[in-house]
Write a structure and sequence with these properties.
single chain; 24-stranded antiparallel β-barrel; 9-stranded mixed sheet; 5 helices
Length: 810
């Protein structure tokens, strides 16, 4: 089988030579000539150097959204010029505005444009139409940058070091930017030809413009960029960056007392050549990472969390191919638990494993071949097992020394298609389980970007007491252009497919098929700026029994009014009973879930106003007496001024007569299912105060409280139905609450260098005793469980090219 798999890999990569595409010639696209500068350019928002007056002007911008394809009116025109030297690219832009006093300019932290006018430049050094490095500047001089790919969209976790300065004038505003070549990727060539586009948003009317027209009738963005010529005789610089850091943590709580710790380490970024970059972290420190939104989880599957650690979020578009990587596995709580006797217990089970080091290599060459390699090692982790009778203790390993590895080969071709091979591997020291998953993913588009064919085939191998092999595959086709669009496809997952060692998957052993059709407007009407209606269907069957595991038929409508208010509505029906093979938590058992109907409503007012409101409401009705789910989210926000804003979210939810697993009785071989009422309150408060675009205070508070109270118990019968069990009296209620508060100050005191001060307190409490008094639960949570952390962290960015000049001066 594996020989056939390798053959498929070669076949897919060879197939790229069989595709042809009618590309626009360079002469048909908009062209701009970059002029070499011969004098010093100061990035101060004043385009007063002589070189700027000599540079070619890029003007005549087109509307992008909400209307598309019209020439911008003269009093809102934009003029852009580009200069270059041996080290960097310079962009100067004049953004005319007939009402400069109305230019919006909210201050925000990096990578958030906020309620502000913005200007962007999109650069593709290989001119392959598939990857842009995008740089945005706001009217308040804020910066945002991202790595854009045709398949994955914008990745704002990518950060580069570059300079910008803006200035408001009586004619509009001015932008001046310097982008070092170290922030870009381009081939070694005497004459460069780059893809380029410029972007502008006038925030008060939510109008967006691009220099090279982007036709929204076509499902492509970067392929419609213009061309930048004129850059000659430059070379990619040595890309070596060192980021040393030092941090201190003071932790305190009632149970464990106080502790002061110090950490230090080094991050390295090294450009192996013009295309590929090595990132490595030595002695990692993720102590200031954003907290997780933990919930009361009563279901059969683990809760999935976002990745917040910078190393595992930045520049990982290659590694996300095929959905095989869930980086939270690296450094997670140990998955192996020692077998205990009735007299043994573990007092403290670790919530994480220590990451020793990690590195990744990624990039793409001039032929469109992307290569990604990620490796991480976690240390051996043990626990103390204590005998509760005699007090004796022993050490047991719950996570051995473990190596995590991901390898990706991604071949792009025809500026809009790709074929990818990816392999993930987990190797554990000793007798513990190893795992390997390999996959082929393809994303093919017609020459005019009107139809898409995509799919994947992933093979998993787990090596334990018994080796298992599994398959996950899918295929879909769809029309991706025009007002009317459609898609259909299917998926097959075998019972033994398992990617959970380095990925995440919940259900296996099924086949499914889906279809969808949608209609959208491409230009505003008298009522709507945007309007989209979609119809969707999905069916999923168990591989062995062919019983329906999932079914869904729905219609969704999403609109934006002329005043830029959002309104959305949806209706969903599951008309067939579902066979749930996972809720019983036992092989061979299943629980029949009744049919249901649901609807949702979403409202969001224009964020340009100082006060804005998001409202979401959903209600789900089961075909079962007095059983429903209700979820409400109310999210008001208020912008006091350009520096200070506040957002509050109140999210109550209720499940009446919910059905779920609570116990298994081994003596009678009975699975116990409970009927329960569950009520949840989720409160969130976020606020920011910006001194300027480099100095920000941020506050984030979350209080979560969920109660599940059982009112009836049932025995799960072999036919999936329930038989009431009146003699079961165990207390299986749940009362869970968490509290998190983060208050931080961050200062970007130099390019790429940041100082952060963080105060954090958090608490969690779980009990089987139900107390519906909010005040009592809240007091117990904070008085008995609260932990405090105060930390200071400093990261300093060192560019090898600048460091050389320091030593020369010395």
């Amino acid at each position: 089988m594996y020989n056939n798999f390798i053959f498929c890999i070669l076949l897919f990569f060879i197939s790229q030579s069989l595709f042809s595409q009618e590309r626009k010639t360079l002469e048909e696209k908009k062209n701009l000539i970059a002029e070499r500068r011969d004098e010093n350019i100061v990035i101060d928002g004043n385009l007063d150097e002589l070189n700027w007056s000599k540079a070619t002007i890029a003007d005549e911008f087109y509307t992008f959204e909400p209307d598309n394809g019209n020439i911008a009116q003269n009093d809102l025109r934009t003029e852009v010029k580009v200069l270059y030297d041996n080290n960097a690219l310079y962009i100067g832009a004049i953004l005319y505005d007939n009402e400069p006093s109305k230019i919006l300019k909210e201050f925000t932290e990096r990578d958030k444009t906020g309620i502000a006018d913005s200007f962007g430049v999109f650069i593709n050094g290989y001119n392959d139409g598939q990857q842009d490095f995008q740089f945005y500047v706001t009217a308040s001089n804020g910066q945002a940058d991202c790595n854009f790919t045709s398949q994955d969209g914008e990745d704002y976790s990518w950060d580069a070091i570059w300079e910008s300065k803006t200035k408001i004038t009586d004619k509009g505003w001015v932008v001046e930017i310097r982008i070092p070549y170290a922030a870009l990727r381009f081939p070694k060539a005497d004459v460069q030809t780059w893809g380029i586009n410029f972007f502008r948003e006038i925030r008060r009317n939510r109008q967006k413009y691009t220099w090279s027209h982007i036709d929204n009738n076509i499902n492509s963005f970067s392929q419609q960029a213009g061309i930048l010529k004129g850059i000659k005789n430059i070379s990619p610089p040595t890309r070596l960056f060192l980021i040393p850091y030092a941090s201190s943590y003071y932790n305190s709580n009632k149970k464990e007392g106080s502790e002061l710790t110090f950490k230090g380490g080094l991050d390295i970024k090294y450009g192996i050549n013009d295309a590929f970059t090595l990132d490595a972290i030595l002695i990692p420190d993720f102590g200031q990472t954003k907290f997780d939104n933990v919930e009361l989880n009563l279901g059969p599957f683990e809760q999935q969390f976002n990745e917040n650690r910078p190393f595992f979020t930045e520049g990982t578009d290659l590694f996300s191919k095929g959905d095989l990587l869930y980086t939270r596995r690296i450094g997670a709580s140990p998955k192996f638990r020692p077998e205990l006797t009735d007299d043994e217990t573990i007092d403290n089970f670790p919530s994480t494993t220590n990451l020793l080091n990690a590195l990744k290599v990624s990039g793409r060459n001039n032929d469109g071949l992307g290569i990604g390699f990620l490796n991480a090692i976690t240390e051996k982790t043990g626990v103390t097992v204590r005998n509760t009778i005699n007090g004796n203790t022993k050490q047991e390993t719950v996570s051995p020394l473990t190596n995590y590895n991901v390898t990706v080969l991604d071949q792009r071709f025809n500026k809009n298609s790709s074929v990818t091979f990816i392999n993930t591997n987990v190797t554990r020291d000793g007798k513990y389980r190893d795992a390997n998953v390999s996959g082929i993913i393809f994303d093919l588009n017609t020459k005019k970007n009107t139809f898409n064919l995509s799919g994947k085939a992933n093979l998993s191998n787990t090596f334990d007491t018994k080796n298992k092999n599994g398959l996950e595959s899918s295929l879909s086709i769809g029309e991706t252009s025009g007002k009317f669009r459609f898609g259909l496809g299917g998926e097959y997952v075998s019972k033994d497919f398992d990617k959970n060692d380095l990925g995440i998957i919940f259900q296996t052993n099924y086949y499914s098929y889906f279809s969808n059709a949608s209609y959208r407007i491409l230009s505003p009407t008298k009522i709507f700026n945007s309007f989209n209606i979609g119809i969707y269907s999905y069916m999923e069957h168990n591989n062995v029994t062919s019983e329906i595991q999932q079914n869904n038929f729905s219609i969704d409508i999403n609109t934006t009014s002329k005043d830029n208010h959002y309104v959305g509505f949806g209706y969903r029906i599951k008309p067939f009973e579902r066979y749930d093979y996972y809720e019983p938590r036992k092989e061979g058992k299943f629980l029949i879930i009744p049919t249901l109907q649901s609807y949702w409503l979403g409202l969001s007012s224009n964020y340009n106003y100082k006060f804005a409101l998001d409202l979401n409401f959903s209600n789900l009705f089961y075909n079962q007496e007095d059983r429903y789910d209700l979820d409400i989210s109310i999210r008001p926000r208020y912008r006091f001024n350009d520096r200070f804003s506040l957002i509050y979210e109140f999210n109550p939810s209720s499940q009446k007569n919910n059905i779920g697993y609570v116990d298994y009785l081994s003596t009678t071989n009975e699975t116990i299912i409970a009927q329960r009422n569950r009520n949840t309150l989720d409160n969130n408060l976020t606020s920011k105060f910006s001194i300027n675009s480099r100095m920000n205070f941020n506050l984030s508070i979350r209080h979560y409280w969920s109660i599940a109270e059982n009112n009836k118990f049932f025995t799960l019968q072999d036919n999936g139905r329930l038989l009431e069990k009146t003699d079961y009296t165990a207390n299986k209620n749940s009362n869970f609450s968490t509290w998190n508060l983060d208050f931080s100050y961050s200062w970007w005191f130099a390019p790429g260098s940041q100082a952060t001060v963080l105060y954090r307190n958090n608490a969690a409490n779980f009990t089987s005793d139900i107390d519906n008094d909010f005040s009592n639960n809240f007091d117990t949570l904070l008085n008995d469980n609260l932990s405090h952390t105060f930390s200071v962290s400093i990261r300093y960015f060192i560019d090898y090219n600048q460091a050389k000049s320091w030593f020369k001066k010395a």
